[in-house]
Design a protein that fits this description.
By secondary structure, this protein is of the alpha+beta class. The chain has helices at residues 45-54, 84-101, 109-114, 129-202, 208-222, 225-242, 249-269, 273-293; strands at residues 6-13, 17-26, 31-36, 60-70, 80-82, 119-121.
């Protein structure tokens, strides 16, 4: 079982580049990518998604940040040129702010050259995407390995907590089973006593067969044997999922819905205050589990 919250980072330096990859994620119903790359290598986005999905990322809001920094070798430096289209967008934005807000537009050519994306390698200096990918891949793989290890560690901690809660719920369910038998026995004793008092007042003879019939009807109405059997099956399934290594978040969520349904049915059959309190406690623990599994992949 893995958590959807994690972080992973890897950095390496080649003869010409310093490459950094950071992965962060939080819980999400689906798999939502947010990938930030150098503008010159935006075409690598799909390769990154495919590689990370192959590492086992199937769910969560995942932020990927890739940075490439040039490293000077001797006296050689990368030849740069101005990206006029990028500069034009900055100028247009500055003019819009001046007109809308009445602020001074002090944007100069020198300032433009320092803004991100304005100065880019010349076409002669720009690396081929395939060559850059070969440099990125080992760093991306290392960051992904750290990221997945963090997800697994957090998942293991969650599993320990969930198993403890499930164990407590099993104990409370066992109390319900014993309370039901005791409740039926108490009902018969009370029923017989009330009926005997009525019979004595009117000089009638107690019909034992009638007592047995009424108690049987009551026992059938409050019987929770079927619900307890289904609950035991659901608990076994949940425990198995808590030990799973594959993504099980959605399956656990569905099984909790089924478990809640059985508990609600038991609650509707309770005529004893102690049993009603136990049912409320079970529902409270199930809700805590439901909140926890929102962060499970």
């Amino acid at each position: 079982m893995r958590s959807m919250t994690a972080f992973g980072r890897a950095v390496t330096t080649t003869e010409s580049k310093e490459i950094s990859v950071e992965l962060r994620s939080v819980n999400n119903r689906y798999l939502d990518w947010n990938i930030r790359l150098p503008r010159a290598h935006m075409a690598l986005e799909e390769r990154i998604k495919t590689t990370l999905a192959g590492c086992g990322i199937t769910r969560g809001k995942v932020d990927v940040t890739l940075t490439l920094s040039d490293v000077k070798v001797g006296e050689k430096a990368v030849v740069m040129e101005a990206d006029l289209e990028a500069a034009r967008r900055y100028v247009t934005a500055a003019q819009g702010l001046e007109e809308a807000l009445g602020v001074k537009n002090d944007l100069t050519a020198s300032r433009l050259l320092t803004l991100p994306g304005v100065m880019v390698p010349t076409k002669e200096e720009a690396e081929d995407d395939d060559a850059v990918w070969l440099m990125i891949l080992p760093v991306l793989t290392e960051a992904a390995a750290q990221f997945m290890a963090a997800r697994e560690r957090e998942g293991e901690r969650l599993a320990v907590d969930l198993l403890a809660k499930l164990s407590g719920i099993r104990e409370m369910t066992a109390l319900l089973a014993s309370s039901t038998k005791e409740n039926i026995a108490n009902y018969r004793a009370r029923f017989e006593e009330r009926l005997k008092n009525v019979m004595d007042d009117h000089g009638l003879v107690l019909d034992e067969g009638r007592v047995i019939t009424e108690c049987a009807i009551y026992a059938d109405r409050v019987a929770i044997d079927e619900e307890l059997v289904r609950l035991a099956s659901h608990f076994d399934a949940l425990e198995s999922m808590f030990h799973a290594t594959e993504p099980v978040g959605r399956r656990i969520d569905f099984m909790l819905q089924e478990t809640n349904r059985e508990v609600n049915t038991i609650g509707s059959k309770c005529s004893d205050a102690d049993m009603a309190h136990t049912v409320a406690d079970i529902k409270s623990e199930l809700e805590k589990i439901r909140e926890q599994i929102q962060n499970i992949e």
